[in-house]
Amino acid sequence: MEYTTRLVDGELERMLPELPAIALEGAKGVGKTATAERRATTVFSLDRRATWLNVDQDPEIVLAGSGTVFIDEWQLSPDVWNVVRRAVDDGAGPGRFLLAGSAAPAPTARIHSGAGRIVRLLMRPLALPERGIETPTVSLAGLLGGGRPAVQGSTAVSTVDYVTEILASGFPGIRRRAETARRSLLESYIDRVVDHDIADAGGRVRRPVALRGWLAAYGAASGTTASYASILRAATPGEDDKPAKETAMVYRDLLQRLWILDPLPAWLPAFSHLARLGQAPKHHLVDPALAAVLVGANRDSLLQGSGPSRPDATFAGALFESLAVQTVRVLAQAAGARTSHLRTRGGDHEVDAIVARPDHKVVAIEAKLSPMVRPADVAHLNWLADQVPGVVVDKVILTTGDRAFRRADGVAVVPLALLGP
Question: Is the predicted pLDDT of residue 202 greater than 80, yes or no?
């Protein structure tokens, strides 16, 4: 199968000549193994029983590997992490170890954090520019540089195409399949998480149906800051025998350890006078295709605007926001920036994505499932720029339109397909 070049490839190319150990983390199916194997001399695949038995009995066996040693699904034998950490302390050279894990180890696992020894690098599903549907013309890194660079370019990617991309998913092994097979593969992915992966990660699910219902309710809340109590209520409508709140929090923690939930943290700038900022994360699954499958959405229902009851927007709009946020997070990470969101406590002002440079200057981004931009669509961007003069280096609205340009108020209007690194 032909390899799809990822933005994380560039990060690895910069890091491997400098660092002795790098851990690629992320949900199953995002492409960690294919990316790491291209750089490995020796591979220990711990999801193969024979290899796992050898490594689990003697974790130091990985030190005998030549060149760059890649340890896949390392969390299945957590002691190997400590072996790598000690090897780094003992002077391992640059590019010596690559690790990949599709679950964070259980809190009870006795492993060192690896801080200062093993650098963690998160890998998400394919961002839109990695999917090859369009050639980007607007650079997020350029926008982060300030100076309000010119934005230009045109695209034939339409609203229907964006919905197709949402449903196709960013999992490389799934999106390559025929349309009729993709939904079955996504359903199987969810079944695997509920029935097997959580147990493999050290969790216990007494009622798989309840967990799946909670996960569907979380997917229906994509792009919102809905409370976990309201998600729990939505997961069990009309049922008296609801899971306890503590059980729901266990679900949340387990699914985050598997990187199935990918909540977007709130932006809490300590240096500004902004008051009454909300602290709740925005809910996003690792891929919006999973949310669509969980709630039973398809192309027709998304294009017709039907789906979970949402007073603020259509479900298709929420999934478009998730696709945009997923893309922005991948691009931001490659540019050395962090992504969060802004919402005032009363909900009077919201900005879908705040991309912050290390010096805390930011690009503020909104996503809108529409080819047209109205003044109300950019009001929150302009409000934020007025509130923190000098902090917002650019303002962007991502649309389904056909042309990139700058408005008179300085907001860059960018079709999502044209946004790239």
Answer: no
